[in-house]
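Practice set, problem 2.
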Amino acid sequence: MKCLLVTGGHGFVGKWIQRLAPAIRDRHGYRVAVTPAGFEILDPRQLDDVLAGHRPDAILHLAAQSNVPQSFRDPEATIRVNLIGTLRLFEAVKRAGLSPRVVYVSSGDVYGQIPEAELPVREDRNLHPRNPYAVSKVAAEALCCQWSRTENLQVVVARPFNHVGAGQADTFVLPGFARQIALIAEGRVAPVIEVGDIDVTRDFLHVTDVIEAYMVLIEKAQAGGIYNVCSGRGRLLRDLLESMLRLAGVQAEIRQDPARFRPAEQRVVRGCNDRLRALGWAPSDRMDEALAEILADWTSRVAAG
């Protein structure tokens, strides 16, 4: 059976891939292998050992420093992991004499701020990164382009937008809402939800849709191609928060904290997924399910301690 190697397999998406491994085997014919906990993408020896052990037919490169505030605190480390780590992976593949299909997971954050009149954003738009994390992803995309042209590596770039589901940290917006709601429901805090700017829209996908998109890219995408992974629909954060409160049966004051507002905030986000749809992929409408999953996840975490 073909082998799919997932770097960063112990993060949010990686854990979902492990959960879905039987379905990936049955639907796509790939055995899923993940890099071990504590794996260091910058270590050539560890990379050589993993590639020798699995001889992958495809690689989904998730390993990254993906926290935007952390990228401002330590931009050099972010660039080393996200750019140099990708280079180390490509060099190891070359040393191993492999020719896998590689899906590099970039980010919709590479586009920067976009006027509403120019939405939905398409893959051919010029990139204007606004934080060190996005800079590192733009640089790694350029590396992918170079290796696909000069080293004949079959690299595809995925640009995922927001994706959600159980298991995310509360540093992300919807889990952050869910944690506060769970604490209120337990009677452990006052019925007040502290938020930033929630009158903005974001393009959300359930994490399972994102994983299916990656599999479609592995199987069908054009090497060297770039593909948005998005729903094509903007959702207002305030509406999602109110839906979560209703699902939980919680009444609370929504209190906006100006200190949480981001400067030069993108008010509306909506991507174009036409390229991905042309490969036979389509998003599901699973936001209600995702909200319920996130609430249940954080309810159990809060109850546990």
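Problem 2, part (b): a different protein.
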Amino acid sequence: MTDESHNVHGLAGHCEPAQWPPLRFEEVSDLLSSFVGIGLTQRITWHSPRPLSAACLVQCANTTLFVKRHHHSVRTVATLEEEHRFIDHLRAAKLPIPAVLRNSAGRSAVGMGDWVYEVHERATGIDIYRDTMSWAPPASTQHACAAGAMLGQLHLAASDYHAPQRHTHILVARSELIYAADPIAALEAQLPQRPALADYLHQRDWQTDLAEVLAPWHAAAQPRLTRQKTLWTHGDWHVSNLCWTDTDENAAVTAIVDFGLSAATFALFDLATAIERNAISW
């Protein structure tokens, strides 16, 4: 799957060859032919350096769109549409989120061969952190405050959204283990449905490792965590998933993107994830 002509952000703070091949013009043109009103596909203007999928901006005759592609082993049409229904709810509550487009068959997730695609409006505003390494800290305290305020608005808008938990454990932020009275037993119960994780954990004494990390605080925290209201959350809240009015340190948020890790968790879990993403160096 490696394509050395396109580099992406690595987890160690440097760029590396993409694991997924970059989107090709012919591929994108074929996909967009089933979307009405956008005009002919003209060219790909930018490839995303984010590492966990392939994405690009596409100039069409009538608009510019954001196209994202997943391997079917990571996202099925059904699990991708779970994200899109959450986005639709938040947009109805006036959150600044680019619309997910539907094709002529009314589908927001489109399967083609081994791949599953989604098409979004281009986000409004300036993508200040476009070329910044993933999970780098905000450029200013004001950016952090603006991001935090917008996260609070998202949680309020999500408070009346009710949907089952995501039907995947792959690349989502879920909170079942931290909820569990016995997280080790809870994870052991999941492993038959998560064979890749089971193979990885089989190589180490993960039960001891997890017990040593969790034991000092989990027994005291877990009863209080279970009283938190279940809430669908963003799951990956960092400043590079936001667009901004301008490049000034006092810029305001104009758009929220990338709901790929969204799931039914709780607001405090999402806030903790946001602190980790923005303030703890990988």
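Answer key, part (b): Residues 140 and 249 are 6 Å apart (CA to CA). The chain has eight helices and eleven strands.
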